TrEMBL record:
The protein's enzyme class: oxidoreductase
EC number: 1.15.1.1
Protein name: superoxide dismutase
Keyword Secreted attributed: yes
Organism expressing this protein natively: Karstenula rhodostoma CBS 690.94
Keywords: Antioxidant, Secreted, Signal
Sequence similarity: Belongs to the Cu-Zn superoxide dismutase family.
GO MF annotation terms: metal ion binding; superoxide dismutase activity
Amino acid sequence: MHHSVLLTFILATLGYGQSISRAQGPPPPPEVLSTIKSGVLPVLPTGTPFAGVDTLEGAIINPGPINSGFTGLAGTATAQSNLPAATYRADLPDTMFDPYVGTVIRGSVEAVGTESGVQLTVNLTGLPNQAQYGPFPWHIHALPVPADGNCTATLGHLDPTNRGEYYMCDASAPETCQVGDLAGKHDGKIMAEGSFTTSFIDPYLSTDPNSVAFFGGLGFVIHTSNTTRLTCANFEMVGGANGTSGNATSTGNVSMPSATGTPEFPGAAARTEATFGIVFLAVVLSLFF
Ligand SMILES: [Cu+2]
C-alpha cells in the first residue's frame, strides 16, 4: 500500500513545476547538455506522468496536436492601449545558465510601452549551432530570475489567460496565444545562428504594473529546441513613464518595477501545483489513517 503511495508521491513530484513548450516539426536528436541545468527537472523521468509525451531532461518536447483557436480558461488576451511609456530591458548575463552549447548568447530585449501595445526590440549575438540546438524558443516567463541566475526558477510562460502549454500558438490568432509566448506570436522560434535582430509591437503585453499582462521584473528565457534553458534575464525598468526613454544604453534611473509580490502564473504550472498539493495532502493523510 505504501509502495503505491510512494510511487504516487514520486510521480506527483516529477509533475510538479513541469513546464512545457511546443515544438514545430520533429525535435533534434536528444542532446544531454547537463544533468542539473536542464529544461525543468534535474533528471530524465523514467516514469513520466505525461503519458505519450516525449521528454528530455524533464522538458516536454512533443506537445501533441495543434488546436488552432484554442482559448484560455480565462478567455483571450486583451489588446492594450495608451500604455505608460516606460522602458524595460532584459540584459542577458555574461555567463550562460547552460554553458554546454559552445557559445555565449549575449544581447538584450528592450520593451517600451506605446499607444497600441509594447514595442519590443531584440538584439542577440552568439546564438549556438542551429542544426544541433535550434530553432530557439524565446518567451517571457511567469516568474523573475532569482539572484543566482537559475532560469528554471522562472517556471512556465506568462499566461494570464490560463491557456496552458499543450497547444501551439496560432500566430494568425495571437490573442489566443500565451501572452508570454513571444516566439509563437512573432515569427516563431529563432532560426538564426550567431546574430538575430527583430523589432515588433506586441499588442497584448503591458507596461502597466496593475495589468495581468505586465511583464516588468519577469524573466526572459531563450531555450534550445528541446526546451533546455540556455540563458535568461529579468526585464528591469531603464526609463521612466514620461516618454523620455529611447536611449538603449542609458542606465540612469535604473530601478526595479514595483515589487510584484506574487507574480501571476496561472496556467500549467499553477495547475500542476494544485495537483501536487492535493496528492501531497492525500499522502500525508494516508500515513496517519
Ligand atoms: Cu520559455
